[in-house]
Model the fold of this input.
Amino acid sequence: MKKLLIPFFIIWIISFSACQKELEKINRNPNEPNTVQPDYLLSNGIKSNVDTYWGQDATMDGALLYVQYWSKIQYTDADRYIPASTSIQTVWSNFYAQGIQDFTTLAQLGDSLHNPNYKAIAIIMRSWIFQQLTDLYGDIPYRQAASIEQYLTPVYDSQRVVYNGLLAELKNANTLFTNNADVQGDVLLRGDPLRWKQFANALRLRIALRIADRDFAAAKAVFDDVAASGNILLQKDSLVKLNYLASPNQNPVGRNRETRNDYRISKSIVDKLKALGDPRLSIYATVPKDTNVIIGVTNGLPNDSAARLGFSKTSDAGAVFTATTAPAILFSYAEQQFILAEAAQRGLISGNAATLYNQAITASFAQYGIPVAEAATYVTKPGVAYDGGNYKKYIGEQKWLALFGQGLEAFAEWRRLDYPQLKPALTGALNGKMPQRFTYPSSEQALNGANYKAAVARQGSDLLTTRVWFDVN
Done:
């Protein structure tokens, strides 16, 4: 009897498989392509991830409040360090599902299509996203990420491992570019291999400073290698930016302002700009309708106190950030020169730190159309004129001013340099402390619990106040 059952079982398996294949054939959409087109994947990957980087969950209700660029005049929980669980989940999910996964697929398409430029761009964009993730959370899934078929529950790598891995990937990406491979769908740098190489090298220098306090020799090796390869860096006053269009491809901040009016510019940055007589004040902030004076709002007010200030009596961020077509900046020449100024001061490169610092401020002014002559006067002012003996204060404060709007990068640099010295939110929920990271989403605790617990045991409690590896107190 058993001998008869065995062949029957085999026949049943074959029949079931055949039926399944037939069902798959019947249910296949003839109008849906089986192969992803690289140009569409690239365009969507850039747009969706820059939206996350510039959008509400990571930036408007997170980093922009933490570094006191913005504040809130309504629904003030986020400004009091009480993030919404949906925001925490969205940042993580979007960067991994719409970022790491999509650009990994694009890199694979670059191989299959024999177009190394797609692969190189995909690696650079994926590295940029990983950098955002580890800056925000600390230890993250990295080496096993984007391989869900193989690693359903990826392990968390230490921040040191992530940064070193990204440095290697970015260096390798620059060796892949060729002038004989056309790229379509590049809405960021128009498929220009040279500009992508410049961006990759700028990211390498950014990451090198992240690790410099922990591993100075490794950081110096990066600066030496970039110099040895020809210093292919951003050219004067250039920007790596996504130019937004009209709806539905508008700036996320502009989209937010179509239906909401609960954000204001922070009193902290208004006070600093006023104290320095900084001409960027009138660009960064609006003049309220009912006054003739720019007025910032203190971070972390309770809802009732904030509401009494009045929408028409307090300043919103300027149109250069809130307009529908306002660009999202990923990297600026000004930031690059601040990096080089600090590197020169610390002996990572040769050069005059004060000159590079002045170039960085001048570039920030130029970014907003402020004449060079005004920058030349500004850099000589007390409180601005460079003092190498206190470089963290001078570079930290001016970099903070220059990065206005780039909340995630400013949040990382504020933690690394410890300047400007900001006061915690007035009624913050962290017992007089300020956020030092984002917490992991609850989905990781539920679905990747063992690896989540291992990361927490290594890094420290999963709290907003836990410092990440690069943040040396």
